[in-house]
Amino acid sequence: MFDKSKIENNIDDEFIRGYSHVDFTSSTNMYFNFLKYISDFFENEIILDIGTYAGHSALVLSLNGKNKVESFDVKNIMTSEEITNISRDFNIKFLEFRAQDIPLEKYEKAKIIFLDIIHNGCEEREVFEIILKSGFNGILICDDINFNSEMESFWNGIILPKTDKIIDRESGFGAILFDSKYEKYFPGVTIEKTEKLE
């Protein structure tokens, strides 16, 4: 299991006070701390947040201020005022697109992709195939990989270096490494490796 001491209390107290309605430190939301941890390794890169919803993951991914975050969803639940304020205060661009309609070059240029969409396994698999075709060579982080049998099937069908041993989260949380050079960001974690993609 990932060394939680590396990510506990990783998010600035001032930021947490500004978003007091979200418990960024609870064990169920430890993935926010992991997102902050992993994004801190990158500078001047593009990070894609696929599945904006309330924008919390995009916010956390943008906290180091050194990367550009683009957050996509078919419809998010934020008001236009929230989008304007967050876009102004953080380096985030919110866009309304289906993940399948995002241009391939956006996927290719990204270093981190956080995938948290519909949870039916089919759309996640479709987006994963698009990411493969794009030439992406970064870290793909998938939320809710144990949410239901369809998501488990999606996750288990991925035959690339991956781990689901990052944090304890009942609904699951995993990372797929498209380049072995990123293994160093996962100390103490066994990366499952197989030879070919099904």
Q: What's the Cα radius of gyration?
A: 16 Å
Shape field? globular
CATH homologous superfamily, by name?
Vaccinia Virus protein VP39
pLDDT < 50 stretches: none
> Briefly, what CATH class?
Alpha Beta
- Number of contiguous helices: 7
CATH A-level architecture: 3-Layer(aba) Sandwich
CATH-derived topology: Rossmann fold
The domain tally reads 1
- Please give the number of β-strands: 7
Helix content, binned percent: 25-40%
Series of H and E elements: HHEHEHEHEHEHEE
Task: Describe what you observe in this structure.
With 198 residues, this protein is of the alpha/beta class. The chain has a single domain (4-185), classed as Vaccinia Virus protein VP39 (Rossmann fold). 30% of the residues lie in helices and 17% in strands. It has seven helices and seven strands; from the N terminus they run ααβαβαβαβαβαββ. It has a seven-stranded mixed β-sheet. Strand 4 (110-115), helix 6 and strand 5 (139-143) form a beta-alpha-beta unit. The radius of gyration is 16 Å and the shape is globular. 36% of the residues are buried. The mean pLDDT is 83.
Produce the secondary structure layout.
Elements: H1 13-18, H2 30-39, E1 46-50, H3 56-61, E2 68-73, H4 80-89, E3 92-96, H5 104-109, E4 110-115, H6 122-134, E5 139-143, H7 149-156, E6 162-163, E7 173-177
Parallel strand pairs: 1-2, 1-4, 2-3, 4-5
Antiparallel strand pairs: 5-7, 6-7
Keywords, please?
198 residues, alpha/beta, Rossmann fold
